[in-house]
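Feature request, filed as a ticket because there's no other form

It would be nice if the structure record came with a short human-readable summary line next to the tokens. Right now we just get the raw output. Example of a typical job, pasted below so the devs can see what we mean:
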Amino acid sequence: MSATLLNGKKLAEKKREEMKKEVSALREKGIVPGLAVILVGENAASKVYVRSKQKACEEIGIHSTLTEMPDTISEQELLQEIDRLNNDASIDGILVQLPLPDHISEQAVIERISPAKDVDGFHPINIGKMMTGEDTFLPCTPFGVVEMLKEANIEFEGKHVVVIGRSNIVGKPVGQLLLNENATVTYCHSRTRNLPEITKQGDILIVAVGKANFVGEEHVKPGAVVVDVGINRVDGKLCGDVDFNQVEPVASYLTPVPGGVGPMTITMLLHNTIQSAKQRG
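Raw output as currently delivered:
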């Protein structure tokens, strides 16, 4: 058996073509979706992510702004900039690129963004709505994972999903989204004992631990769907949290790195920004 690859790049391209039409229709009504990005400091990876987001906005017709701030900026100054954007009617989404310098509270920053403009889906109000299955902005990476699985017609109902990782950005919300889809969800993490025994029970295995090639064939139930959310660099090459060569012969479906989940994250950010702009209409 050889796994079918879930091509996030191809799906992202398809969705962005659809979004271009949505944005064009909004522009005809005089509504130009706007995304504001704030970048604090000189983190090289963050700069790459921000450039990718701006390029994606440009491609589909979303107006984007970038505010760059030195890492010496005070928390209060950053919060004042968020307040300004909260009150800017031309901005539908606000994104503060993480990580932030140690002297600035990420939680304080996330909570300052208006829930109506929280297109990252991190505000406690939006997280609460997600937990209760209400309509809200969903965190972009977990949202992208679910969309990829739906596109491949993978069933969730009654399936056992095992998530390795419990971050607020990926692990916890992706499990909740699949629970909302009537899956049975188990979370594993750094304190989990006998990890392979548990992960091998998963019909769907989602890996988000940030450790290169962490998951091997011993972790995977034959025929399982494996989603690799990790992005690591080893010897100058990108790789995931899943050992691709070991797992590819065992799984039924597998996301590659690069070209799997990554392109879907920015795509769902664009989706959320467009949905926010529609609220203006």
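Something like this underneath would help us a lot:
Residues 8-28 form the longest helix (21 residues).
The mean pLDDT is 96.
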